[in-house]
Each structure stands twice: as C-alpha cells, then as structure tokens.
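Now for one record.
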Amino acid sequence: MSGGTLASVAGRQLWTGLKFLIAMTIVLGIVYPLVVLGVGQVIAKDQADGSMVTDANGDVVGSSLIGQQFEGDEWFAGRPSAAGDGYDALSSGGSNLAADSPDLLALIDERRAEVAAANGVAPEDVPADALTASASGLDPHISPAYALLQVNRVATARGLDPLAVRALVEEHIQGPTFGFLGADRVNVLELNLALQRLQP
C-alpha cells in the first residue's frame, strides 16, 4: 500500500472520528441534559428546582433538603453539623472521628450537658440525634423525640402555650419514605417557619 493511500485512509478515519466526537458532544452534552431537565420539570418540578422553601412573604429561605443553623431559645434546633461552620453545603461531610475516639466522646458529653441544661431535662433523656452529626453534616431533619424535647423551651421563649407548640410538632412529623424507608422525622426549617406563624 502506497504512502498516499495510507494518508488517505488515515484522513478518512480521522474525519470519521471527529464527526463521531461532534455528534456525541451534541447528543450527550446538550440534548440529553435538556431532556432530563425537561422531564424533571414536568414530573417533579419542586425537586428539580432544589426543593426550595418560602416564608409567608414568598421569599426563599432555604431548601427542605439542607439543614440550617438556628440560634436562640425561640427556635427549634437541628442536629449538630460537622460541615464547615455548620450546614455548609460546600464542606459536606462528617467529623471522621472513630466511634471510640476520645475527642468524639468528649464532644458528645459536652453536647448532652448543653442540650439537657437548655431544655430542662435529664442528660439521659437527650436523644442520639441531638448529640451526633449526620454523615453529610447537612441533615435537615431531627427525630420527633428531639423536637418534642424542645417544646417547653421554645414555648416559654415565645410566650406560647406548650400544648399548641407540641401540636405543631406533631403536625410536622413525617413518616418513613414510601412507608418503610427510614424513621419518623421532623424537618426543622419547615417547623420553624410554621412556628413563626404561631404567634400569641
């Protein structure tokens, strides 16, 4: 086979490869993402848009999928977070401390004492999710037990009837996903927004 013929074959193969690359870039880089986005907007618009939560004024205050830090006795507190300075989505992750780490055990003891003192309960009554961060550090949920533990503190700080605040918590308890995945939980952001509307 002559050099000219080899160059011609190589040129055709290069051109075929280049056409394939362009076609796949258009299909997989433009068409496919647009189709997935369109299907998401039709089937699950709220989730596709980030599950945003709005306040009474219609302002976006966060996502129901990512926890937030709430300071002060007038708010329900979420789980501890090891993500950056707390619920930093750019620093998602756990503490990476082993279960028998002296640092982790000391931190849990410190948190247990703080939560018990803040809520006027015995240290042994503090649930585990009040003491440990989730694996992502972004969990927006707490257990019903932890939410109910905070009722008296929040009601006192806001001058509300504890029974009304307790009823609000019970209204916001979400069951397991699909009825069997996970446990009962309370979304702290959604609960605190409802709490804002529950004024004396």
